Inverse folding.
């Protein structure tokens, strides 16, 4: 199984850790009920980021693909995936390139935590490489027609 992580995972982890520490330090000196607001506003996202950031990414191999996002994970066998494509999500300031799974039942599933960003119309090389690697793994695992 090959594991690919978002290059932003360490940044998300550190932001979550800072938020969690701010929440804990606020809770230590909380004397009123309204002191709970910053604890909830910083503590919940901090806890989610601190716990999920080290494990999110995509793992793929001969058996299939497993994507772990920020709040949920999903997995597919290669028989469920028709192809892996390079999708582009246009924005007003910059565009993002991201891997997209085209499933056998016609649905698509984008993998947003693995997106690459840029200001030009050129495709993000990291995302292109990831899509090519996943497509090679899918092609190698699928039975060849006789």
């Amino acid at each position: 199984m090959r594991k690919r992580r978002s290059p932003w995972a360490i940044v998300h982890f550190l932001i979550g850790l800072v938020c969690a520490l701010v929440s804990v330090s606020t809770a230590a000196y909380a004397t009123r009920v309204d002191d709970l607001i910053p604890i909830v506003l910083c503590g919940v996202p901090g806890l989610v980021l601190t716990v999920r950031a080290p494990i999110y990414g995509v793992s793929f191999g001969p058996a299939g693909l497993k994507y772990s996002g920020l709040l949920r994970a999903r997995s597919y066998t290669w028989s469920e995936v028709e192809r892996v494509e390079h999708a582009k999500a246009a924005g007003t300031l910059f565009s993002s390139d991201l891997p997209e799974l085209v499933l056998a039942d016609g649905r698509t599933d984008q993998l947003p935590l693995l997106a690459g960003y840029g200001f030009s119309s050129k495709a993000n090389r990291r995302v292109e490489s990831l899509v090519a690697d996943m497509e090679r793994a899918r092609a190698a695992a699928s039975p060849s027609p006789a």
